[in-house]
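Per reviewer request, we include the raw input and output of the structure prediction for the construct analysed in the revised manuscript.
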Amino acid sequence: MNSKCSNRCAGTQQPVGWVAIAPSLETLKCVIAVLLFLACSSTASAATLYWNTTTTALWSGTSNWSTAAWSGGTFAAAPTSADIVYFNQQSVEGNETIQLSGAAATLNLQFQNSATTTFEASVTGTQSLTIGATGITMSARSGAVTIGNSARQVAVTLSGTQTWSIGSSSQLTVLNELQLNGAALTFSRWGNIGGVGRVALAGPVTGTSGQIVLNESTLTLAGSNSFVGGITVNSAGQLNINQAYALGSGTLAFGSDTTKNKQFDNTSGGAITVASNNPMAWNSTISGQYGATGVVFIGSNDLNLGAGTVTTAAAHQSISVLNGTLTMGGAINSTGAYNWEKNGAGRLVLTGSSGSHLGTAVINAGTLQVDGTWGSTGGAPDIHGDQQL
């Protein structure tokens, strides 16, 4: 506000005989000046912008963005961190490549293009894409989305805790670095329609804090990851562990919901031994003995989870190995006299030294191979039918 207005507002003495309305006009002028000042200094409200081309085009190009959801509309400036962006206008269908020529940011990414959508740097090197707290949504009609390129890389950074909701049967792939930046990143299925919600993180997932939560979706980790916040797999989630360092350095936890399985697999094409020895928390109570609901290893390829300690807090912990061999080398601990139940036709191998597990092992199907010792005070495995120990 200018000093002239400030002086007037300060109540300066006016000459005798000054018309009474004059101070009121001066006051009104000052009030208007204050309102204009506040309006000019406030942050602009979020815009909703729509990509309007199927050619390879720059994110920064103002002619590539429109304010209209269907077609036409007014050209708009490139999105900022406050804006919601759609790929694409509903009348625009076809394979799209969005090129970043500098740092890009958005509050939210929405995908509804039925063809493929690809993000890459405009030249060889790395550009950055920052995603705000409302995350990513792929609608049921969305085609495959790929963020990044082997040479023209896109480094993704999260600016807040968020959810990526996938409703398409197509996959969302992040090829290069994903920096959690202290955020909790949740993967969920979008709505009750569409596909299974498939996401692949092929590059390194980094961050000195931050975690991954998996709900009703499939997540493939194929990079050498260093994030430290751990992974939680909840109901109907499937985690594909496709690299020796895929789990970072945090705890691998399986949720306690009793209605749906929590699944994991190795779909890399060959056997893998997890090198980071992550501690594990298995909390999946089943609804009664001899059930198959709980933690399920699909067994596309053999998997060794390393020497991380396994702690259970479930009265009847069901572990199903459907195919192949699952090996765990850590001590088995529990917070009570809880039973483990082995289900599935595959082989479960326990090679760790004795832990504090107090319960028994019930073998309902397949093979339980104990190369270490079964708990410190737990009972001998209980074999049903023609199953093996």
